[in-house]
Amino acid sequence: MKGRCLCGAVEFTVSGALPKLYQCHCCLCRRVSGSSSNAAMIVPMAHFAWQQGIRQYSTETGFKSHFCSLCGSPVPNMTRDNESYWVPAGLLDDPADTQVAMHVYVASKASWDGVLEETSPPSYEAMPPDDEFMALLQPDKNLIERKK
Could you tell me the domains of the chain? Predict the structure, then answer.
């Protein structure tokens, strides 16, 4: 699947089954996205490829934000373990083959952020343990089988 920034100067591809999404409601993600939350997925390095270049900004605490130098769109960046990429879901051409698996940092959500429905995916006040987080983001095996 292809992805790109608003102006198209930054392009990338994601191969294989799409992982599930998470929506982060922390203040950093709200600022990066300019919205109530940031919908993203974690893609293994082997399934991610840059097609065109990026720029980067880092805070003193180590938070990194990669973006297009022309339009300013946030673009994928490598996770702390350097084994995968954080990919903003809104940049994908058609992420219809995935779904939201969880909401994280809901304790930090903006006061104007709507209440999450009881039918929503699981919600966590902060980030769940890494193993639980990654397990919830695995692609839906039933969807993969239906596509074969």
Answer: 2-140 (2.170.150.70)
